[in-house]
Amino acid sequence: MPKASILSSIFHLPSSKDCLAFLFLLACFTKIAIAEEPTPFFHVAVAESPPYAYEENTGKWSGLTVNLWEQIAKKLGYHYDYVKLAPSEVLEALHTGKCDLCIAEMAPSVEAKNLIDFSEPYLASRLLVALRNFVITQEIAEFASSLKSNGFLEIFFLMIAGLFIFSILLWLAERKNNKNHFDTLLPHGVGSAFWFGAVTMTTNGYGDKVPVTFWGRSLTFIWMLAGMIFIALLTGTVISSLTIAAEHTSIRHIEDLARYKVGTFRGSYGARTLKLKGIPTKKFDSLKEGLDALCNKQIDAFVADSISLQYLISHDYPNRLRLASIPSGTIYRSIGLRPNLPQKREINNALLEITSPPEWNDRIQEWVGPMALGQ
Question: What is the pLDDT of residues 20-73, one digit of tens each?
Fold first, then answer.
């Protein structure tokens, strides 16, 4: 008996045919297992938030973040469908697993991070303030309001009353000895004295009327001093009112918004920032709703993300609204993910490959135009 057969009979070794059959079966099962591995399918939440995501008239979704996700999905071979939600429903949909990710306007926050995950950031923006464009009637009304609140009217009427009293006293002192300049008749004489008092107070000094008596000149001396005080008070009030009116139409610090009726997008970074600063705000469920309220004078200012504001104002509110920059932190935009999404790492890798090259900034500007003020 051959030695191999003896060993096989002793140790029960399989024959070469059995080994080949085993390897063939193993390869078939491996191939079947690989072939049957399902392609990842994602339920993608989308919410109306131009220019990040918006629905076209055809029903197709478009936008900066939509375009980014579709590139990632194509790169990784993912299949997906879009689930339209209201912005307020997105967090719950991701937290409960109803949706796998969200490509609407999202910024990581402490509250959101406790409920969902986020991808690496793909865009940085800042806060801007939308204001109504300057209107000359509005500026005049603001200036008049400032004059009134600063006591301009009180000073003016006090000055006129003082001028009238001075005119009567001066006419009484001059009417007998200075008939050429101050007529003895009451209307003409007091009128001449009134004219003289006004000219003297404003330091014009035409010289057409001159007091000649001791009491007339004494009264004039006192009136000169009083006139300087009145003019100084009026000048200071006007300058102060101009300054206040200018301040009411300009914003240098976020605290300046306390003077305005301010609106924000509900649940946004801007809403959280203003709340921390103690500035009361009116919340709106969409940016467009807030900007419409601004145009209709229901609010005086609307605070939101610079990218969104620039896009909407340039497309829907040209020449009606303007933008003002305020110092604020950077807002990082990310893709929202449901907790423990297995594909998070490969999505991040694909996202970084797409957004890292310098060309990404050019593609952003294709959606929103030149970089928004304050970025």
Answer: 555 556 555 554 444 445 678 999 999 888 888 988 888 899 988 999 999 999
161: Cβ contacts below 8 Å, ≥ 6 apart: none
Question: Per-residue pLDDT tens for 296-305?
Answer: 989 989 999 8
Q: Which domains does the chain have, with CATH numbers?
A: 3-35 (no CATH), 41-122+333-368 (3.40.190.10), 130-134+251-325 (3.40.190.10), 140-248 (1.10.287.70)
Q: Is 264 in contact with 271 (CB distance < 8 Å)? A: yes
> What does each C-alpha distance from 159 to 36, 222, 231, 367 come to in angstroms?
96, 14, 9, 61
CA 375/CA 361 separation, integer angstroms: 13
Q: Cα(205)–Cα(211) distance, rounded to whole angstroms?
A: 12
- Alpha-carbon separation of residue 10 from 1, 6, 167, 322, 348 (angstroms): 13, 6, 142, 94, 58
Whole-number Å distance between alpha carbons of 295 and 314? 14
- Report helix, strand or coil for 237: helix
Give pLDDT tens digits for 283-328: 998 888 999 999 998 998 999 988 888 888 888 888 888 888 887 7
Distance between CA 322 and CA 66 in Å, rounded? 27
Say if residues 66 and 295 touch (Cβ distance below 8 Å). Answer: no
Instruction: Give the type of residue at 23.
Output: L
